[in-house]
Amino acid sequence: MGGYLIYFAIIIIVPLWAQMKVKGAYSKYSKVPSSTQMRGAEVARKILDANGLYQVGVEETRGHLTDHYDPRSKTVRLSATNYHGHSVAAAAIAAHEVGHAIQDHQEYAFLRFRHALVPVANLGSNFSWILIMIGFFAGMSGMVLLGIIFMAAAVVFQVITLPVEYNASNRAMDQVVSLGIIRNDEERETKKVLNAAALTYVAAAAVAVLELLRLILIYTGMTRSE
Length: 226
Prior knowledge:
Blueprint: H1 2-29, H2 40-50, E1 57-61, E2 68-70, E3 75-79, H3 80-84, H4 88-105, H5 109-138, H6 141-178, H7 186-225
Parallel strand pairs: 1-3
Antiparallel strand pairs: 2-3
Protein name: Zn-dependent protease
Keywords: Membrane, Transmembrane, Transmembrane helix
Pfam family, one: Zn_peptidase_2
């Protein structure tokens, strides 16, 4: 019983802690203006043009921290605060999303692999628990195994996301430094924003792996008792 309590505490506390780190870092550095006073949209456009990605658009999108790169329309979308903001945080996040655009242009292997996994990962996320619960209640270990296989695909997607995100952040740092978008102490502050954001992906992957391992152990117990 104690082991389960610790397990559930971990899968609840770790993501919450990661979210708090992100919100804390973003809240702090969104109030720190960058020395160049470039808006997030200008940062994104400058990096894109410097890399010859003139065809990639930069658009404003609704929501808070909804920033992303859309590989289908070749568009970097920034939330209003980051699109219009002149802060270190806005520059960091804009540069990170452009990092994904550069990955896409250069056909970065892990990004290609992640894109290929999207249909399978979506299927796994939507149906794995249905199959697992049916298997548990019906005592059908084969159904549980099928659900675990579907879940494993979703877990692989989350694990593959880690190198994709860290690589995009590394690219972002290289670009903002080499193009003079940030200066002096801003490099350290920019890294803090990017590292905090990366923690959410690390936490999600860690929780997903733990859950998958737990289900595998349960499945192993079911097959032994059959």
